[in-house]
Amino acid sequence: MDILLYTLLGALVLFLSYLLYLAFRYTNQILYPKTKSYDSALDKVKKQGYYPEDYINSLPYETFQLKSPYGYMIHGHVYLQAPEEGTEASKEFAVLVHGITMNLYGSLKYLPFFFKKGFNVVVFDLRNHGETGGENTSYGYFEKWDLSTVTDYLYREYGQDIQIGLHGESMGGTIAMLNMAMDQRISFGIIDCAFSDLAELLLLKLQQDSKIKSKKMIGFVNVLIKMRAGFSIEDVSPLKELPTIKQPLLFIHGSDDTYIPPMMSKAMYAFKMDKKFIYIADGAVHGTSMASDPQRYDEEITSFLNEISKEKQYPLGH
Fold first, then answer.
1. pLDDT at residue 15, as a whole number
2. pLDDT of res. 221
3. Neighbour tally for 75: CB within 10 Å
């Protein structure tokens, strides 16, 4: 009897030790993703199929370094329209927010779609990515305040009469929505393949990676994240914030996305009361809705911008 009891206790200890190891490993993967260098990020976007490198490289830009509310420096670029003689400088800005593991090159692939419509374009490295500092990645909890720091800079540098819209891919789309929920200065959001709720996404990833589907495990991971990084995954949920987002949103998602399922964008579209639009890109996987059909992507965002604009109509072009 004693041998059986010791065997069972030993098996239990081994099982609990495995779960603890799994939780710590998963927490590390969440907080410290393997981010790409500029060269590897550029290589990835070029392989996706659409990156007009010569055009983008021909455009001059201004570099900025801003101090985050959390002490590190935020690195970014501003691409300004060159005003024609006798005309005023453009007052419209599109801030492009990249996804996880990427950097500003993950945003630059979208630059032509806005620059050729007359927008000044802003790209920057998110916390713990590229040349921006920060100890870890928080999926929007801290990053939304860094985005507000960029907005503050644009208003301070280019005037109080500017207009700012956001485009975010994947995690960048989630950050954009969390920012819009607290910053009414933002005019619109184009949200490409974003997740609707971090806890739900992490549960899905846990199941994909380890075949374990346990909300209790995610709850324990959340405790570790609170202890190690000072935020809760429960506070990273655009779905919960949508009732406070009054600005227009265009949701975009690839129909074949298995990294962040398109049902998340469909749920957010259904949950937002008004000023909402959605485009499901047929056959596109994660982060490739634009690259899979640049012309259709341009048509969708141009139609969106023209639908919400009261003062001008934007041309097609990318």
1. 54
2. 86
3. 20
d(C-alpha 152, C-alpha 131), whole Å: 20
Distance between CA atoms of 268 and 277, rounded to whole angstroms?
Answer: 11
8 A C-beta contact, residue 220 and residue 228: no
Q: Using alpha carbons, select from 303, 311, 189, 281 the residue that is nearest to residue 242.
A: 189
List the chain residues with pLDDT less than 50: none
Query: CB under 8 Å to 120, separation ≥6 — which residues?
Result: 78, 79, 80, 81, 90, 92, 93, 94, 158
Instruction: Tell me the CA distances in angstroms from 19 to 55, 72, 188, 221, 222, one per residue in order.
Output: 50, 34, 43, 10, 14
Q: Which residue from 89, 126, 94 is spatially nearest to 318, judged by alpha carbons? A: 94
CA angle 112, 116, 122 (to 5 degrees): 60
| Cβ neighbours, 10 Å, residue 228 | 16
Q: How many residues does the chain have?
A: 318
Supply the pLDDT for residue 203.
87
SS (H, E, C) the chain: CHHHHHHHHHHHHHHHHHHHHHHHHHHHHHHCCCCCCHHHHHHHHHHHCCCCHHHHHCCCCEEEEEECCCCCEEEEEEECCCCCCCCCCCCEEEEEECCCCCCHHHHHCCHHHHHCCCCEEEEECCCCCCCCCCCCCCCCCCHHHHHHHHHHHHHHHHCCCCEEEEEEECHHHHHHHHHHHHCCCEEEEEEECCCCCHHHHHHHHHHHHHCCCCHHHHHHHHHHHHHHHCCCHHHCCHHHHHHHCCCCEEEEEECCCCCCCHHHHHHHHHHCCCCEEEEEECCCCCCCHHHHCHHHHHHHHHHHHHHHCCCCCCCCCC
Name the CA radius of gyration of the chain, rounded: 21
* Residue that the structure tokens 């949200």 belong to: 191
Contact 192, 169 (CB under 8 A): yes
Tokens found for residue 303:
């139609």
